[in-house]
Design a protein that fits this description.
Elements: H1 13-40, H2 44-50, H3 56-62, H4 70-91, E1 93-96, H5 126-135, E2 137-139, H6 140-153, E3 158-164, H7 210-214, E4 253-259, E5 264-268, E6 295-299, E7 305-307, H8 309-312, H9 336-344, H10 355-369, E8 386-388, E9 396-398, E10 404-409, E11 416-421, E12 425-427, E13 429-430, H11 431-436, E14 439-441, E15 449-451, E16 466-469, E17 474-476, E18 495-496, E19 507-510, H12 515-522, E20 527-536, E21 539-550, H13 554-598
Parallel strand pairs: 1-2, 18-20
Antiparallel strand pairs: 3-4, 3-6, 4-5, 6-7, 8-11, 9-12, 10-11, 13-16, 14-17, 15-16, 19-21, 20-21
Helix pairs in contact: 2-5, 2-6, 3-4, 12-13
Amino acid sequence: TPSKRNRKQPLTKEEKERRVHIHQMHVLCLLAHVEKRNHWCNDPFVQESLRPLLRAKTVQYLNPASSLTQFGQTESLKRGLKEAQEVFQERFRITEVGLRRALWAEDPTDLQDYELPRNIDSCLDKVEFRKAARNLRGSRDVGAQLFCALLRAVGVETRLVCSLQPLSFVPGGPSLPKSSRQNRMPSRPPPASARADPVLASPSPARPSPRARLGHPNATAYRIPDIATPSSSSDQRPPRPNVRINESFYPIYWAEILDVGHQKWQPVDALVTGQHFRPHRLEPPAADRTNVLTYAVAFEDDGTAKDVTRRYAKAMNSKTRRMRIDGPSVPSSVDGAKWWRKALRRYKPRGPPSDLDQIENIELSTAEEREPMPRNVADFKDHPIYALERHLRRHEVLVPGAQVVGTVGAGSKGPLEKIYRRKDVRVAKSVDKWYRLGRVIKPGEDYMKSSDDDDPVLGLDPAKGNPIYTFEQTELYTAPPVVAGRIPKNKFGNIDVYVPSMVPPGGIHVKHARAGHAAHLLGVDYAPALQGFEFKGRKGTAVYNGVVIPVEAAEGVRAVLKGFDDLESQLQEERRSLRALETWRKWLRTLRIRRRIFE
């Protein structure tokens, strides 16, 4: 059990909102960063420097003939990718540290001794990017970007994908180490099929991985010493640097290529995992402190971008959504989904979606729907598809006869809990809240459950409970009609018009501040329209907007109101004229005084 001194304090409401705003700002900065890198991948000088890496036969494989079958085109593309990856892994050297997960510091003093790594990515402008393309050296992020530029240079339709690493707004995540020297490697070993060892400064396909050589699950911890090889005049590749790069075993940047045969975007990671056509192999585990998959954004060569996180996240609904701005963890004061759509609007392609976009949208939606059911109780909270009764809010109930789709146990010895579909969960409200929406409870309906909320208007006691009902148990409210020009009023002398449907038959709602005065001058019966309450503390103040009058008197009242408006405009014009005359009077008086002084 952590001591009180080391226990983290819960975040206040203000701190949560501040972290959300910082998260939003960081996401925008990262999007702009990836947009710039994607633009550099289209640079002609960069592509001309990289194009000679591939032989003509490889380029032919990467651009399969349309006469081939779908299977033939895909196999040709895979063969070309394999050859291109081998060449690029052989030539490119990882010498610097790339982008990594941003973490919060537990205490401001922890940032005083923090230092950036000495071998941090130095490619900050297009000149350095061109230099990296010539020398084939840099961070693995730059390597993924150059590989994207290489594929574009030989005519392959390629996207640049980045897993954004913004500061999290969700409490309870990993924090910044006390010192930059305390950075540790991820505990999980790299995938068995990985072609590159990110622990070393540079991957090499010619050298087998430690796991393959030693056959032990922990063999990757063994540091194979660098062996100097005799140089020849024909080998102009730069020497392997003696730099140890501590990075995640999963990429931050990778590429997506279009499989023309199947009209499908497929991922390609050339340097870190060496995987292609396997999207779920690119998601880092939850224990990885330096890499987290929250937003995977793919940029095309024309600058447009798309959120493709659902393609790579294995638990999008149960885990990944909680860390996103459009997820359930965002405070209610922030509309995260709307903000995220607005942030991506800059990168949205113009015009209607193409056939390829529609196919991809269906693919992403299907992948989200096929996500397996969570295995632990915590992941069911705010899940968009499944729900547990323990996670229902105070104003949520299950419909009668809700179908049970499974069970889950709270621990090894806990009882099994029934799992329901989220579509069987309904929002329930009290009688007064339904009335403010223009609905009343049907006769004979029994309440679904008793909420412990009190009502500041009705003064209900929370200890006694407040019965709540679902939408299906209500019907539209019909106010008493207007009879003989008399407006039906409540005991306070006004009429409730929370929604337009609450206006009584034979009446009309006139929204004007002086509508009551106009009706009084004409001798027409009227009632002030109550449209809501404003709460300060636990006291509610009624909000009125216009009056309700008989329909036959509406034309006369509007004519009087028009006269009021015309009279008010005339008075305002007269006041402006008087102010102008007063200004001229002061000006003339000033001129007279000036003339007397000079005379």
